[in-house]
Amino acid sequence: TNLALRYWPTAQYTLFEPLIECQKYLENLQNQYVNVNYRLIAVGEITKTEVDLGVNKEYLYDSSLMRNGSEIREVPQWSIDDLIQERKVLQPDFMKIDVQGAQLLVLEGAKQTIENCSLILIEVPFYRFSQASGVFNIFHEYIAWMAEHQFIPYEIVDVLRRPLDGAMGQCDILFCKVGHELMSDRRWNPGINQPSMVDSSKTKYGKQNTQQESQTYIEKGNQLWQKGKLGEAMLAYRQAVELNQNFYLPYQKIGEILAKQGKYDEAIMAFRQAIKLSPNSVWSYHHLGSVLFQKGELEEATTAYRKAIELDPQVAWYHNGLGQVWLQKKNLSAAINEFEEAIRLKPNIDIFHRNLGIALARQGNLERATNAYRTAISINPQLEKELRKTSPTSEDFQVLQYILRRLSNNN
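^ that's the sequence the OP posted. Answer follows.
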């Protein structure tokens, strides 16, 4: 982690460690860097309340799930996918996995996560050093598993040879996603006039065909997005940017994916680049406003949504977005005006009526709020079940319970 911090000082780091003995080191690191946090858990294939960990008291870092330590200890275990899905950690771009032979078990529990991951550094053994040979894997099995999940080896580092005969015992392999920019240049050395994949398209076809190829990658990214393959879609959009850095759309698409992954700062940069290239890119302003709202930067969010509405006042979602900002800023009258305009433009969207109901209820207009919720539920009957699950700690809980009782009595 210390080495990574030297090269990526502003990245966010989450560390996982099941040994309580290591907590003091993790605390020191977390206290030293605001962008580092840790969780005292094991990671594996599935989430379990307890798993058996073999603790090697003489050499703690040799502790493992193989249960061959001097002490068997029960520790909590999570899968990476569950941690991401429950928003306990952020979606990673880069993962490093070294868990004493159980690396593939961690990856099995991270299949969804690695679809949106670019690089994975894994400790890979060449021999089954443990008696638990049916559980833990070796070199060729890692290569095959990673290839099946669209990752290929890029670099081999930290080769460790076994004292027995000097043969390679293990190494770290850096895998990158298929299509990653690290693998885009196929030249052997700079002196050979063999352009990279991107450069060859420029020299062979010229500027017009480069732009056409960029559009092809955008369309490919859109298709991958529709299939839910956001990681591969991101690679396609980045390839489109590399081919044509003056077109706004791939930046906007990249921003949308980053926003979905919770990487708001990077998403903001992407949306602003899209706007810089196309000042009338109204949808970029909308997405920028949404991300700024999520970050709590309400003044900038207001500016972005207002610009979107200025460019195209007939889009209901822009008014709804600005209404949510006003609601957060406690300007209830302004919020109600925007939600009502969204409903006028698109009356069959349940969330618009729900948002209007929230604003009216907070204003004390319970009669109109009840009618707004009634309309929202008539559009989406499942909404009533969701509303009944509202946390008692919510600002709107008491009023919402009153409205739901009124709706039930009317029915």
